[in-house]
TrEMBL record:
InterPro entries: KH_dom-like_a/b (IPR015946), OsmC/Ohr_fam (IPR003718), OsmC/Ohr_hydroprdx_reductase (IPR052924), OsmC/Ohrsf (IPR036102). It comes from Naegleria gruberi (Amoeba). It comes from the Eukaryota. This is Predicted protein. Pfam families: OsmC (PF02566).
Amino acid sequence: MIKSTGSAALVNNFSSVMNRCLEEKKPAAAEEDVSKYLKTFNITSISEEGSLVVSTAGTCPSVAINMDEPITLGGTNQGPTPLELSLASLSGCEIITARYAARGMKMQIKSISCTKMSGVLDVRGLRGVAGVPAHFKSVDMVFEVETNESNERIDTLKERVERSCPVFQMFKAANVTMNCVWKRKD
């Protein structure tokens, strides 16, 4: 919940900028000073014992995020693995980006759900085998949109999300095969 008008104004301004950016793909002017668009995100993490890591975000320092490994891998199973959290970040970021894009498109959406999110990883990369990436090889995801909008509008929404979602773009930049389906919720 936003408590101060200063924070609300900042959020509304950020929302307005996001909506304009998502409306259409425009190349940046070569002479434009992009420093005014750069935002720094901060996380702190600590591990005092074993594989449990507790992180907090600068935007929400009162909420801790536990990351761990399963007991079978020497962890204590006190939280999702970092890889699982990366998939959760991907689905969350796509949904939030979709909300901004839909607002800019004047698209009415009741709900958006990620009903499938799975990543395939070659574990040899984690073991340091040369030539094998330590990141996901592929990610499969299905999003269901509850809306009365046309299938064409859902397709346009998907395109805008994939172009503008920072987490999606990080996966794509790592040459992860992204198999993404957006469909109407039955």
